[in-house]
C-alpha cells in the first residue's frame, strides 16, 4: 500500500488567516500598574495627561537678579542702572518672601522661584555689586531668563500616548510630572513546552542520539524580545499522558501556548493528537503549511487562546514563530499596530539585494531563504544564501535577513534582485570588514584579535574558489584562500590577476586524519596509505565539498580512484574530524589542528599557504588596513603558532 | 566690585580628553557567570568555542528509510527497488541497534540517528510498503536527507565572540551546544545622587517652589540602556555633611558616580566643593565646559573611578550624560569599541537635514541644538529646532536628534544643511502623519484616536503661520491653523492658495480668561472688559507668541494699547491658563476648555475655526486619509464635543 501523505497542507496565507480569525477580537491585554522605576521598556496602557504644570512656578534659568525689565532699559557697562538689592534673596525650593518693586532687584539662583513683581532675570555676569545696590550693565527684555510655569508641560496636556514604549526619554517626563506609578499593558504570558524523547536539557552531559533543547531558550528570549513573558515548561517526553498534563497546565496559566517538536508523521508525532483531544473549539486550524522551512507547523486555538506546535528543527521553529506567533504577541503586548497602514511592520524598512548564485525551489509552497548580506563596490547589497538548512541553529543566528520565493516560482537566477526582509527585527549591522572564502581556525584567531581592537567583521564561508570570485566581483574586502596550482607547484599567487593583492597569511599542515591506532594508516606515508586504503574493501573515506582547496588535495591523493564514501562531502575541516572520530568514515583530509584537538592520528601531506586576497582598490579601507597590520603583528603570529599554524 | 566669573570654562574636547585620560586604561569590567535563562541582553565576556558537535550524530532530516544510496540507483515508480525492512526501526533519542547492509533498509524518523551502513535517507513519500519489504520509487544520492554530525557547529569551532550582545539568536546557539551558564561582562554600577533643597520625590504631593526629581529616573533608565546597573541614591539636601556622606557611600559601591544639580555658582552650589574635599587624586578635572546646554558640568575622578556632577536642568543633565558619561559606560559594559575606526559610534548612521529657520549662537562654545525631523516632498530631511531650552524635560523626549553649532560659528541660516546626530541611540521613527502648526486639545483627541487605529503621528507646534508655511514648502502632511481674516471676516479659507486643501476641523470658543471672582472682568463683555483693564494701573496681562492665531485676536482686542505684561509671550493656551491661575497675570486670551479645566472665569470673544490644511498632492497618503476619515467620524466628533469643542 502507498504510504499516506505527510499531512494535508494548507497555503501559508490561508493558515495565517484562520489563526488570526480564531483569535479575534485581537488587541492589547489589560492594564497593570507598575512602579516607574521598573517601567523601562513597558508599553503605556493609556494616554497620560499631566496632573501638574512643569515647571510648577516661574523659574529663573540663571544665577542673577530678578528685576522689572523696564528698570534695566538703557543700561550699559558705561552707564549701568542702579537698583536697590532687596535684603532677602530667593532661596532654592522656597517661595520668595519679598516683592520686586520699581528700582529694586532680588538675588536669585538658577532654578529659583521668580518673585512677585519681577518679569526678567539679569544674569550675574552682567552685574556689579556696590554696597546694598546692584549695578546692571545690560538691559533685559520681559521674560528674559525665565521659564514660565507650565511652559514645559501644562497641566492637562496629553504628554504621552497609549502604546508608547517607555524609554528613558519617557520615564523622565513621567517623573517630572510627579508620577511614580504607571499603567502599562500586561505582558502576554507564553508557555513553552519542548517535547521529544531525544531532547535533553543544556547543562547536562551530552548523550548519544540526544540533542540539547535549544528551542526552549531561543523561544523564551524571542518572546521577551516581542514584549511577552515566557513561562518555560521544560521538556516533555513523547508520551500522550505527559503531553496532555503539560498542555493542560500551560493552558491554565498562559495567554498563548507554544509546543515544539513532534509535528511530523514520525513515531514522535503525538502533540497534534493530544491537541485534538484537549483543546476547546475551534481546536486545530491548520496542520501542515505550504512553506519552507516550517511545513510541519500546526496552528490551533482553545477558545481565543492561541496554541501553536512549532516544528522541532531550530530554524524552522524560530522562523515560524516569527512569521505566525510574534505578530500576534506584539498585538497582545500593545507593541504592534492592529492595522497595517504600510505593507509591512512599523519601521520595517526593506532593502533589495542581488543574488550572487542561482537557487532552485520546489515550487508549490512559499520558501524563505535566509541570507547573509554584503555589498559590492558601488554599495549595492549582495545576498548570500545560508545553506545549512532548517535543522541548523546557526543558520538563524548568522542571518542578516531573508527573502521569499513565492509558491509559483521554481528558480531564482544569479544576478536577480530580491527583497530582503529583516530577521526578528534585527537590522543588518554594518561591519568594518567582510571576508568571503575559505574558513580556517587561524582566521578565527585574527578576527578575535581584531574584535578586541574594535574592528567588527563578518565571515561568509563559501570555500576558496567562491571567495576568489567574490573578491573579484567586489563583493567583499578580502577572501581567505588556499588554492594549489600544480603547474607552478605553488599556492594562491598564481590565482591573482586583475587588481588583486595577496596579504600573506600563514602555513598550515594538511594531511590524512584517521583514528589513532588504526594499523591501516598508523606510521605509514600519507600517499601510500591512501593508495592502499582505496583498494581495501570496507575502508570508508569522507570527502570535502567541491570548490574547497582541500578537495583539490584529496583528488591528488586519490589518483583517480573513488573509494567508498567518495560521494559524501563534508564542508569543513571540523566535519572531517567528526566523521572520522565517530567512525562514520575511516579517513579524510584535514589540517593537523583538527587531528590534535580530536585525538586523531595524522599523516602529513603538505604544508599549504592560507592567504588573504584583497582588491587593490580596498587596501586602504580601515578594516582591511587593520587586518593587514594584525596579520603581520608578532602578537598574532605567536597566537597562530600557539594554535599549531606555521606563522 | 565686579561679580566673579561663573567658573573657569574648559573647551568641550579638552574636558573630555582630561576625563578619559584619568580613567585610562579604560576597558570592559570583569567577568561574571550567569544562567543562560537570564543572559538575554548581556555582553559575552569571552569567545565561545563549541564543546560538542551539533548535531552530535548523523541525523535524518526526513521521515523515511535509511538505506545505502547505491541500492536505490535506477529506482522509479514503475520499477521500484525492493529492499528488506530491518525489524528494528530507528527510535528517537536512541542509538540504532542494527546495521544497514546491502539490500536492506531501516525505518527512521525525522531527527533519528542514521544507522551504521546507511549513507542516505529515502523520504517516506517515495516508498511503498509490501509486507516486510519496502519499495523505493526514486533513487537517492549519498548524503541525501542526512545532516552529518558537526555540520551545524563543529566541536572546537568559535561560534560566538567576546563582546557579542546576546539576543535570542545567540542564546539559542549556546543552548544547542549544551551551555547553560555563560561568562558575561559585569554591568557597571552607577550611583545616582540628586541634590538640591528644591527637589522632591515623584509620588509625593506637589509643593510650591519645589520640583520633582526627574533626573534620577531618566539617568537610571539611561544607565540601563547603556548597559549599566543604576544604584539610585535618592535626594540629598544642599548641606555639605549630607552630600559628603552620600558621596562616600556612593564611591564605596559604584564604578561610576553621578550627581545632578548644584553645579552653578548659586547658593546651592556645594557639590563641587565637597568633591574637592572628598575625592582621591586626580579629583576635579574640569568644572565648567564651553558647551550649551551643559556649561555647569563638572568632570572628576577619584582614582580611576569617574565622578560627574551633571547640571540640574533635565535636558542639560541628560545631554551631558550622553556626551560624556554614556560612552565611558558602554566601554565599561563591553558595548563599545575602545577605538573608533570611523568617525562615530559603531552603528550611528548620520543623516543630513535642512534647517527651515535661522538660528543664532553665542559663539565661543559648542552648542547642541535638539530638533524634530520631518521630510519635504522629495523626502529630504528638515530639522525643526525645539525651542524650550535646557530646563525642559520634554525637549529631550521629543527630540529626533541634534546638530552641533561649532564654537567658531555664530549663526546658521535658514536653508543650510546640518548633520543630524541621533539622540541616545534612538533612531528617528518614520511616522504615518506629520502635522506642523498650531496645537489644540482637539487635535490631541484626534491623534489619540488615530494612534488606537495604528496610525502614528508627530506634531510639531510652531503656530498657525509657521504651519501654513511648512505645508506650503511640503514639509508636512497637514497644518493645524486658526487664522482670522478681517477683510472677509472668516477663518482659514482665505489663506488657502497654491494647491492647499482645507480639511474641516471644528469650532472652539476663544475668550478672555481671568481668575473667577475678579470684579474687573466677572460678568462683563469681553472687548469692553479688556478696554477698561488696559487703562487700569496694576492690571497685568499675558500675551501669546507672535505667529499664533490667538495673538492676532489679542491684538484686535487691545486696539493698539499695550498694557503691562504685553511683552510677555506664552506659547500655548495652557501656559496662558497657568499664568492667570497662579496670579502672574490677571488676564489673557485662550480657549474656554482651559478656563474650565483650571476653574478660571471666561468671557467669550468669538468662535473660531480650527481646521487642518493639507497639500492637495498628499491627500491620498494613508495617514492623511485616516486623519480626514477620523475628523469626519461621529465617534471623534462626539469626543470633541465631550471636550467642549464645537463639532
TrEMBL record, chains A, B:
The keyword Metal-binding applies. It catalyses: adenylyl-molybdopterin + molybdate = Mo-molybdopterin + AMP + H(+). One of its GO terms (cellular component) is cytoplasm. It is an enzyme of class 2 (transferase). Keywords: Magnesium, Metal-binding, Molybdenum, Molybdenum cofactor biosynthesis, Transferase. It comes from the Bacteria. GO terms for molecular function: metal ion binding; molybdopterin molybdotransferase activity. Its cofactor is Mg(2+). Coiled coil: none annotated. Pfam families: MoCF_biosynth, MoeA_C, MoeA_N, PBP_like. Residues 191-331 form the MoaB/Mog domain. Pathway: Cofactor biosynthesis; molybdopterin biosynthesis. The keyword Transferase applies. Its EC number is 2.10.1.1. GO terms for biological process: Mo-molybdopterin cofactor biosynthetic process. Belongs to the MoeA family. PANTHER family: GEPHYRIN, MOLYBDOPTERIN BIOSYNTHESIS PROTEIN. Catalyzes the insertion of molybdate into adenylated molybdopterin with the concomitant release of AMP. This is Molybdopterin molybdenumtransferase. It comes from Chondromyces crocatus. The gene is moeA.
